[in-house]
Amino acid sequence: MKRLATVALTALAPISWGSTYAVATELLPPDRPLFTGVMRALPAGLLLTALARTLPKGEWWWKSAVLGILNIGAFFPLLFLSAYRLPGGVAAVLGAAGPLFVVGLAALLLGERASLRTVLAAVVGAFGVSMVVLTAEAKLDLVGVIAGVVSSASMGAGTVMTKRWGRPEGVGPLAMTGWQLTAGGLFIIPVAALVEGAPPALDGSALLGYGYMMLINTGIAYWLWFRGIGQLTATSVTLLGPLSPLTAAVIGWAALGQALSPVQLVGMAIAFGATVAGQLAAARTPRPFSSTEQMDKNISMDLTDGQVRR
């Protein structure tokens, strides 16, 4: 029951990320994806770090920077580049293939055994997402494909390394999330300045959109994501990824008046079923005892979590 609650809370992160497209298109300035990446990551990172009242020490300065670049700083720009170069949802399909990177890296670096059911769940989930987002007009672009693959690999590596390194003793996921978002946002700033120039003027709608992005879509969502990584296997967490494009499709239908074809509905059912099957497979797969788990016995969780007890 405890694991189910942890999975459900972690799933709220990709569900929240599924609202990114609708918020960006309806409220934010157009053609400013990198500026949006900075506004999502840096203010949220600084806020969470201030709330945690904890700064990195020793090797955690460079470890936090590496994790922040993998999970945020490199992932955001590459994801946006892929989305701009690959119309028709191809970028979403490449993102949905991300669990396959995590399955391989987790087996190599964490000793997490990948069962056949887990691999099939990842493949079927990506297939279901492709039915939802791909169109007959979808075209491949080499730069976009490379950016999409590297962005998925970057996020996958960040997920696995977050699990491998764990957290410093006495430090909860709130601080870890703040450190990574801050490092990632700082990494994006020079890229945004070089590519997009000066920041745009912001009206009330943009401020509302960026406020949502910063607090809900990034601050709380990434806190739940990294919290989940600390308590579940890396494979289990990443198999929740298809919930993001599925949520985007539902929001597009419910709020933006976008139609859903029978093929898309079938694809949604397949992807959701694969996500559930992946969690069941991950729950049955034995995993090695890690230093992160030992640490979690004595770490006080941030906000309302109380203490983690295994």
Structure commentary:
- It is a single chain.
- By secondary structure, this protein is mostly helical.
- The chain contains 15 helices and no strands.
- The protein has helices at 2-17, 20-27, 33-52, 60-73, 75-85, 90-96, 98-110, 116-133, 142-165, 173-196, 204-231, 234-238, 243-255, 262-284, 291-296.
- The radius of gyration is 19 Å and the shape is globular.
- The two termini are 13 Å apart.
- Residues 287-310 have low confidence and may be disordered.
In short:
The chain has 310 residues and is mainly alpha-helical. It has helices spanning 2-17, 20-27, 33-52, 60-73, 75-85, 90-96, 98-110, 116-133, 142-165, 173-196, 204-231, 234-238, 243-255, 262-284, 291-296.
Topology of helices and strands:
Layout: H1 2-17, H2 20-27, H3 33-52, H4 60-73, H5 75-85, H6 90-96, H7 98-110, H8 116-133, H9 142-165, H10 173-196, H11 204-231, H12 234-238, H13 243-255, H14 262-284, H15 291-296
Helix pairs in contact: 1-11, 1-13, 2-11, 3-10, 3-11, 4-9, 4-10, 5-6, 5-9, 6-8, 6-9, 7-8, 7-9, 8-14, 10-11
